[in-house]
Amino acid sequence: MEDATPVPLLQQPHLNLPPTMSPSSLLLDALPTPSDRAHIARLLNPSHSRSPSKPIYSDRFIPSRSGSNFALFGLNPSPKPAPADGKDEISSSSAAYSALLRAALFGPDTPERKDEPFSASRNIFRYKTETKRPLHSIMPFGFEDEDPAGGASRGPAKAPRKVPRSPYKVLDAPALQDDFYLNLVDWSPHNVLAVGLGNCVYLWNACSSKVTKLCDLGIDDSVCSVGWAQRGTHLAVGTRNGKLQLWDASCCKRVRTMEGHRLRVGALAWSSSLLSSGSRDKSILQRDMRAQDDFVSKLSGHKSEVCGLKWSHDNRELASGGNDNRLFVWNQHSTQPVLKYSEHTAAVKAIAWSPHLHGLLASGGGTADRCIRFWNTSTNSQLSCIDTGSQVCNLVWSKNVNELVSTHGYSQNQIIVWRYPSMSKLATLTGHTFRVLYLAISPDGQTIVTGAGDETLRFWNVFPSPKSQNTNSEIGSSFLGRTVIR
């Protein structure tokens, strides 16, 4: 058997040798020694731990954070103490800022290198380090509250926000009907509350507490719903006779009267210049205030009275709830529902779109259901369900924080503030002696008003302001007391 002739590695096309290296010097018989192969095996073994006393080399193109010389940035590790005479306040502030910037850019645990003098010829970055650091020590400073092990906060737990348990104002509202299917309270963007009492509509200015009588429908009719336009001073009023009146609240003048429904109009929802009205005749009419016709389209699908209507915040989807236990979602161009949900086992009046997440819809069921359900209309799926223990009459979402409030009827007659998505209770508010059938939220998003068959309207500070959780509403405690709205 002939001896095998060593083959130069140069003949293997996948190697690219530097021109300074002699190809003839690389032969197959120049394999690693047994000790070298054992060393390579230890390095490839995942369980192999390096000795902390030896330098740890990183990738040649990725510098080591802890081994780099950040002094070249001019960011000193820590500020020097200010002198007693206070003359170097500016330099002390600059040093503190440099320390904060350094910690934000390079992490709080970057080793200090005070013993190495600055040299313009030295490299900023190093490619080896003398210490090993955990992964979380180099996480971006935006995640300083995240625990690297399981997401728990490393800092002190934030104290739960305190919600006042008593209303700051109570208004007597004589003849406020105890009817689950009506919607008799709404709060305008201009801070004016509209309330339907019997056959009249009254306006209460939250800034001045002035009460104005807007209209009187006469003894042959009564108010079943009120709804403010998103802009301007127009108020829609739905009546027991199936008519819809549009009033200009700034001058207490009726603009027009629209027909189309055969029975009472108990639900209203605005979308820009489009007004949707839901009726006991099971239909929803779409009315364009710019058109001469009383309505431009009719939505059919419910098998019983329509008692809940809400447009999404982008005005693309309309959610409707009915006494047929159904929740429907319509788009701008459909005359049939695009989504149908039948999981509720009682009437669906409470409907609220989240202002924080597109397509997130909350709905509440009546006495036989008692549940709040959450839906993702983008994926046509139910997200979660919680049994509240009482009839759900209304829902409204905070625009300042990811929380919502629900009002309830049988048997607790309470108001609950929830934190979403955990649905933990922040507060349970009591005071009404009848079902809390009516709910509206102030334009600043901090205050809610609730109405009940006990003929009272109660004002509660439940949500924080956008900037501070301790700032009270501008219409808050300055109007303490009890007055009559008519």
Automatic annotation (TrEMBL):
Start and end residues of each stretch annotated as Disordered: 1-30, 146-165
Pathway it works in: Protein modification; protein ubiquitination
Gene Ontology MF annotations: anaphase-promoting complex binding; ubiquitin ligase activator activity
Protein name: Protein FIZZY-RELATED 2
Signal peptide: none
Record's keyword terms, sorted: Cell cycle, Cell division, Mitosis, Repeat, WD repeat
PANTHER family according to UniProt: CELL DIVISION CYCLE 20 CDC20 FIZZY -RELATED, FIZZY-RELATED PROTEIN HOMOLOG
Gene source species: Punica granatum
All copies of domain CDC20/Fizzy WD40, residue ranges: 171-460
InterPro entries named in the record: Cdc20/Fizzy (IPR033010), WD40/YVTN_repeat-like_dom_sf (IPR015943), WD40_CDC20-Fz (IPR056150), WD40_repeat_CS (IPR019775), WD40_repeat_dom_sf (IPR036322), WD40_rpt (IPR001680)
Pfam families documented for this protein: WD40_CDC20-Fz
Gene Ontology CC: anaphase-promoting complex
Compositionally skewed regions (Low complexity) per UniProt: 1-28
Ranges occupied by WD repeats: 216-257, 299-340, 429-462
Superkingdom field: Eukaryota
Family listed: Belongs to the WD repeat CDC20/Fizzy family.
SMART domains referenced in this protein's UniProt entry, alphabetically: WD40 (SM00320)
GO BP annotations, alphabetical order: anaphase-promoting complex-dependent catabolic process; cell division; positive regulation of anaphase-promoting complex-dependent catabolic process; protein ubiquitination
